[in-house]
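[Discussion] Sanity-checking designs against the backbone

I'm trying to build intuition for which residues belong where. Below is a structure token string of 246 positions. I'd appreciate it if someone posts a full sequence so I can compare it with mine line by line.
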């Protein structure tokens, strides 16, 4: 049976993924702060709802929908318009207000069913890190809770995108986290220094059950949002290669 691939909402990324994401998969987007992870997750939900007929829920630790909507509007997204149509939902859980649990999973599942939701994004895993700190003895509980959440999303039939922060994002020195292995796909965004400025780059580290490019691509953020330049090689890397010939 051919697997159904869905569009990511990030121009160029579907090309790198040779069609898109497998419907119903759980995907991790990881990288250093400021690389564009939140934006990629937001585009996944926004364009999924607006252009691809898939309603979405964006779970965020940000304090304020207005701030999120404002910064999105500078990047070509009219979030409020899609929210007003009942196609996109933002659920905010500021870290400071988290207590007993992430949120009621049952409440979330009900909302998924009621609103015909097909995509869920969680920004970010810090939700779970905060609630289930990974000090010695408690590592298993953190893993268990993330797994339970993932299983629930799978059962609900949604494509699930999760953001996590990582300090070292040099592709050559990437330190994998134990949780990475539970995701079916991993996309890494990083910053590479080129002289006096940094360039954003992306690579798909894994995408279970589908063919994808293993190359490193430049990423830009502009008035149309985040884009993957799938037909270009990062400047920073070209220079590195050339140094080899000096
Ligand atoms: N309106 C904008 N125009 C250009 N770049 C922007 C705009 N808004 C945000 N950015 C860039 O996007 C980056 C933030 O992306 P974000 O998705 O929040 O990163 P992450 O979630 O990985 O920390 C900022 O560091 C900034 O450089
Ligand atoms: Mg972020």
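Best answer:
Here's mine. Compare freely.
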């Amino acid at each position: 049976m051919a697997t159904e691939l869905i569009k990511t909402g990030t121009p160029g990324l579907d090309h790198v993924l040779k069609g898109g994401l497998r419907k119903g998969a759980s995907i991790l987007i990881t990288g250093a702060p400021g690389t564009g992870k939140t934006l990629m997750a937001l585009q996944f939900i926004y364009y999924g709802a607006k252009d691809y007929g898939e309603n979405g829920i964006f779970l965020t630790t940000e304090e304020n929908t207005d701030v999120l909507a404002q910064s999105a509007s500078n990047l070509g997204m009219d979030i409020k318009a899609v929210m007003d149509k009942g196609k996109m939902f933002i659920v905010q859980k500021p870290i400071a207000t988290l207590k007993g649990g992430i949120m009621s999973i049952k409440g979330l599942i009900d909302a998924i069913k009621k609103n015909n939701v097909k995509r869920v994004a969680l920004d970010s895993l810090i939700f779970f890190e905060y609630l289930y700190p990974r000090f010695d003895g408690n590592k298993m509980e953190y893993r268990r809770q993330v797994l339970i959440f993932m299983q629930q999303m799978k059962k609900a039939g949604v494509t699930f995108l999760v953001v996590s922060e990582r300090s070292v994002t040099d592709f050559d020195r990437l330190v994998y986290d134990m949780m990475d292995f539970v995701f079916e796909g991993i996309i890494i965004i990083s910053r590479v220094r080129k002289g006096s400025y940094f360039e954003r780059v992306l690579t798909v580290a894994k995408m279970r059950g589908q063919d994808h490019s293993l190359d490193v691509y430049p990423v830009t953020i502009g008035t149309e949002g985040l884009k993957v330049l799938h037909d270009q090689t990062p400047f920073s890397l070209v220079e590195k290669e050339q140094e080899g010939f000096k």
